[in-house]
Amino acid sequence: MQLIDGKAVADRIKQEIAQEVAEICNAGGKRPHLAAILVGHDGGSETYVAHKVKACEQCGFKSTLVRYESDVTEEELLRKVDELNNDPDIDGFIVQLPLPKHISEQKVIEAIDYRKDVDGFHPVNVGRMSIGLPCFVSATPAGIMELLARYNIETKGKHCVVLGRSNIVGKPVATLMMQKAYPGNATVTVCHSATTNIKEICRTADIIIAALGSPEFVTADMVKEGAVIIDVGTTRVPDASKKSGFKLTGDVKFSEVAPLCSYITPVPGGVGPMTIVSLMRNTLLAGKKAIYK
Length: 293
Ligand code: GUN
Known about the structure:
By secondary structure, this protein is of the alpha/beta class.
């Protein structure tokens, strides 16, 4: 079994990005600038956004954090989105999800200028991704593809089972795994809450991408010997022995699954750091106007 070290790969990519940013700035170019909107004080969202801001520093980007209390109106949030759309110094921005119930996430996502949508959530980017056109690919799926590529994992002709059908991970990663390119060319099955025989399907998988948000859902009896396991889960499970009071727990029962497989991502330190670094790469692409002129 080989551990897929997402943190090490992400650190290397951040260095590559920082190098490129230094070259751009030395040549008189503009420093990439990412803005993030954070609504409320959800613990997970606070942590993710703090990681994004720190990664910006490491990459040599400018970053701006815009905070609102959870009672902000949809109108006010949409006004800020419009302001960022029209701010020439901002290359890309994200609105951290989830949003409070009184705000339509879809409305907010669609209000973002797709040319600044470095999360890749806007329907223009989703659509372009699904037909293989240049676009901002959402960060977690892009990070997973990068890990498969950096570890030279064969995907062509393999049976890839995706667990979960979210717009952020399950659907886009299934699309990318079936595209006619490496890493891709896999035969993809998507399982979700209405799938009746998940265990049997998983047992036929060469690659499992678990993105359900259900702690330790994938157990040893669901995994074929030699399978590749990508664990996207990051649920906070109460743990009194931790200073934070919780333990980040993946969708895979690591202790019993790891000995069976050829490659596996740990939680934390697997997909998570790659998600952040993919957002940094999208921001660099936005800064360079490499996708949309
Ligand atoms: N919430 C969970 N994951 C993400 C992400 O990748 N981007 C944003 N904006 N919100 C999230």
